[in-house]
Amino acid sequence: MLSRRDVVVGGVLAGISGIVRDWVAHATASQPSTKVSFDVPPNATDCAVHVYEPTRFPYWEGRSYTPEPATLDELRQVLRTLKIERVVVVQATSYGTDNACVVASLRARAASRLSTRKRRNRRSTRCTKRAFEASG
Questions:
Q1: Residues above pLDDT 90, as percent of the chain
Q2: Residue 112's domain spans which residues?
Q3: Burial 82-120 (b: 16+ CB within 10 A, else e)
């Protein structure tokens, strides 16, 4: 059974949390240092990731929670560690209807994938040319 004191303390803490909620500190999310002990299947896709960059893209005022920042660079690090190349970036409710963060993430991801493909294509073209010339 709740005592009057429990109710008063709970009310005070709820009030304080409502005030403190507006004082958001932005920090880098902690990254696990555990080594990956499994192989991800070829052509695997992480089908629901969020990118949170509140310093570049402010959160929606009507959000019900405030997530830790999770930047595109951190996402790249996780994908490299897991050896995943394909990912679906989805809109987070903490941004409301403003999809600027998702669009910027997709553009940056596409640009980096295109530059990687160009390097791979140049390399494979050189290797193919050398193999062709060596075969006589």
A1: 32
A2: 26-134
A3: eebeebebeebebbeeeeebbebbbeebeeeeeeeeeee
Q: List, for residues 80-104, the tens digit of each pLDDT value.
A: 888 888 889 999 999 999 999 999 9
Amino acid at 124: S
**Is residue 17 assigned to a domain?**
no
Whether 18 is covered by a domain: the verdict is no
Number of domains in the chain: 1
Residue 15 counted as domain residue: no
Which of 5-9, 41-45, 79-83, 118-122 is predicted least confidently? 118-122
State the Cα–Cα distance between residues 63 and 18, nearest whole angstrom. Answer: 13
Residue 9 belongs to a domain: no
